Design the sequence.
């Protein structure tokens, strides 16, 4: 009789789990060695050029982790949000902001001597809508978004670890490129929003192994 | 030159002691006289054990800890009294708690009976530190992304004065090795040597454990 690696793993897992004092969910490996872990995720992004904050989430971070290599793919869908800033320091601008996933999240969890370190990259088109200047609507169309996807690298701070179940804090810095299809507002938006030095800070918690 | 009868006997005794290399009433691994509470009649005396500090494990690339390890009275751990005895302390199971691996908590289970096997000199005194090793170590750590079994033996010594068993396997000798590695993000491989540092306070309701020669 032969058993598949997955079957052997499950058999060993069942034995090892007996009497475990640690509240861990049963192994949920599917395919070969991929474990799906879903986390709660919530954070903010600071847009440098407008000196404004954008809420990120709450949402669910899904990771499909290769437990042999630490590589993972996944998704971090971000619900629509809004931002508010001032032009020239006094003219208020409001806009809805959507992050449209452009590619799967990719990354790696690396075990150092004493902790796990995460590095990953999420990619979105940043889309603006319902732009109001001084309270007045301005036409920006329905396809006002960055020309190219915005790549947002996030990871654990060098001195902080990531707990595969309890999560951790992921931070990063990214650049927003030029917008297009924003009608007559395109030049204005491109003078106000794109630029480097934008930051992101996401708290990831409550990892749950998907069955 | 001639010896009188008495000096010749004394000389022979000195030669005999030098040949043994240690003083009288000492043993070096072929069997010890073990007494518990002063009683050396053959019997297995119950005992409990609890760590006095965190338990530290290390592979060449990772370190991890358990906050404690205990052997409850119900686990039927024993100190074997009698003569000759070499496997002096027996631990059918350990209860490891608070084990944390890089990346998260690990559930820990042990297997088999771990035994302290004495090897070093021991006298009839009550302050010896008797060297030896802990045999038949086998335990498995497991969480959602990693499973590791470590098995083998570890250097250990029993301090009669403190009634502590100190397990100190260092230098990645390979006496303790990994096996059954699954996952672990590629950071642990089968056959890797493991270090272990652990200090157990032993308590027998029948009294102090004493190890001596024959």
Sequence:
């Amino acid at each position: 009789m032969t058993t598949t690696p997955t079957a052997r793993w499950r058999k060993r897992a069942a034995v090892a789990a007996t009497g475990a004092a640690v509240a861990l969910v049963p192994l949920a490996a599917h395919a070969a060695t991929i474990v799906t872990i879903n986390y709660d995720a919530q954070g903010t992004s600071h847009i440098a050029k407008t000196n404004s904050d954008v809420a990120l989430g709450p949402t669910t971070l899904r990771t499909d982790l290769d437990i042999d290599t630490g590589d993972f793919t996944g998704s971090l869908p971000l619900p629509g949000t809004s931002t508010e800033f001032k032009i020239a320091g006094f003219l208020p601008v409001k806009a809805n902001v959507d992050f449209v996933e452009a590619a799967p999240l990719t990354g790696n969890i690396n075990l150092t001597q004493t902790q796990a370190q995460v590095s990953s990259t999420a990619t979105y088109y940043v889309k603006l809508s319902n732009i109001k200047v001084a309270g007045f609507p301005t036409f920006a169309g329905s396809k006002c978004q960055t020309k190219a996807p915005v790549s947002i690298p996030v990871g654990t701070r060098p001195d902080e670890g990531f707990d595969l179940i309890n999560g951790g804090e992921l931070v990063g810095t990214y650049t927003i490129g030029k917008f297009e299809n924003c009608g007559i507002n395109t030049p204005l938006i491109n003078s106000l929003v794109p630029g480097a030095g934008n930051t992101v800070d996401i708290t990831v918690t409550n990892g749950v192994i998907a069955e | 030159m001639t010896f009188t009868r008495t000096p010749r006997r004394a000389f022979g005794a000195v030669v005999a002691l030098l040949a043994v290399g240690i003083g009288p009433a000492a043993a070096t691994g072929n069997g010890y006289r073990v007494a518990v509470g002063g009683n050396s009649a053959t019997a297995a005396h119950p005992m409990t054990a609890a760590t006095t500090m965190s338990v530290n494990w290390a592979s060449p690339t990772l370190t991890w800890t358990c906050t404690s390890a205990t052997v409850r009275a119900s686990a039927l751990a024993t100190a074997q009294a009698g003569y000759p005895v070499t496997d002096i302390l027996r631990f059918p199971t350990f209860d490891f708690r608070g084990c944390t691996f890089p990346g998260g908590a690990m559930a820990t289970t042990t297997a088999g009976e771990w035994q302290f096997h004495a090897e070093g000199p021991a006298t009839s005194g009550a302050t010896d530190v008797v060297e030896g090793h802990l045999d038949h170590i086998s335990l498995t750590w497991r969480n959602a992304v990693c499973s590791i079994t470590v098995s083998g033996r570890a250097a250990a010594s029993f301090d009669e004065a403190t009634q502590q068993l100190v397990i100190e396997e260092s230098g990645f000798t390979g006496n303790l090795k990994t096996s059954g590695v699954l996952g672990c993000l590629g950071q642990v491989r089968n056959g890797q040597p493991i270090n272990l540092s652990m200090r157990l306070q032993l308590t027998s309701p029948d009294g102090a454990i004493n190890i001596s020669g024959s």
User: Anything to note?
Assistant: The first strand of chain B starts at residue 32 and ends at 36. The CA atoms of residues 75 and 93 of chain B lie 6 Å apart. Confidence is low (pLDDT under 50) at residues 1-25 of chain B.
